[in-house]
Amino acid sequence: MARIRDNDMKKVVSKKKKKTCCSQFAIFISLLLSSIVVLVMIVMNQNQLDVNYGTLDILSITPTSTVVQNKPNDINTKNTKNKMNSTTTTTTATAHHCINEDFHPQNKVGVWTMLNDNMDYVKGAAKLGIGVRAKTKTPLDLVVMELKAKPLSDEMWDILRPSGFMKCSVESIKAPEKTRGDLKEKFAVLHVWAMEIYDTVVFLDADTFVQNSIDDLIHMDLKGKPVGVTKDIRAKKWVDTFNSGVMVLHPSMTEHKRLVDLLYSGLKFDYIMSDQGFLNEVYKDNWHEIGFLNNANLALYLFQRKFWDEHKLEDINIIHYTMQKPWKCRPNGGYGPICKLWINAFA
User: Fold this and answer.
1) Considering the entire predicted model, what is its pTM?
2) Tell me: domain 109-344, CATH 3.90.550.10, correct?
3) For 229-256, what is each residue's pLDDT tens digit?
4) Residue 150 DSSP one-character state
5) What are the residue boundaries of the structural domains of the chain, listed by start?
6) Can you tell me where the transmembrane regions are (predicted)?
7) Which of 322, 244, 252 has the alpha carbon at shortest distance from 280?
């Protein structure tokens, strides 16, 4: 009987062990399944976060048109809705300061000029644009920057559009009080640095004329310098400053913000020269020489004639009519041969 009871006890203990093992196994399986469910939920949430971060990335590079205290903004948000609906998985910099809805860049290079409501300069810019298009192979946008507060008339745009220009309307940038009154508007040129939608911008004054290709200028290596310009002449002599009538640069919001901050910092510069004086102070000894052929200042024809005559007129890429505006040129005047170039071009 004792043996039977011992056997019965062993069977009971064995059954209890089996039940315990089964319970432990069930608990293990339950925990394992729970862990798998948690992992799946984490992965799904992470994917959702990735989508949201992608949306934030798009928003962070989308421009905004809000202006505070006459200072240009870093970004412009127009057309955000269309960009959000895009199925493109990659993003590219689209920042710019153009506040008009019809600004639609097509290329990564922009050739820009700035105009006010002066019809003579408008006609000059139209011929400038034709020259750029006719001589240059690099795909590019031709852009006229106008002030929102001083827009060009429909008649003026009827002259500019056939040359291939598109409009970029910008807010004014308040000039320091000491700036010459008739040149205060020119600080709006600082908006060009904010046009990150372009890899390269060539800025040309409306009194310049392109007679040869500017492909080499567009693709010029600036050797790490922030801007490409050429040496200026003042009071009949060469000076260490540069002329900003022709500039090549690679837009950067960071650099744009730095420029605006410096403008409002109380930085002293040659106020008579307006934006050119300011840029010379900021980029003192920190600019790349683009050469005479890319900005042949008419002042050199008058005051440094020997230097001018060392170059063939037909080799000059960009002529800058500083001393005599091209629309006032006379073929029999003091700048006769150079005036004839502009008068006869695309006539």
Assistant:
1) 0.74
2) yes
3) 999 999 899 999 999 999 999 999 999 9
4) B
5) 109-344
6) 21-44
7) 244
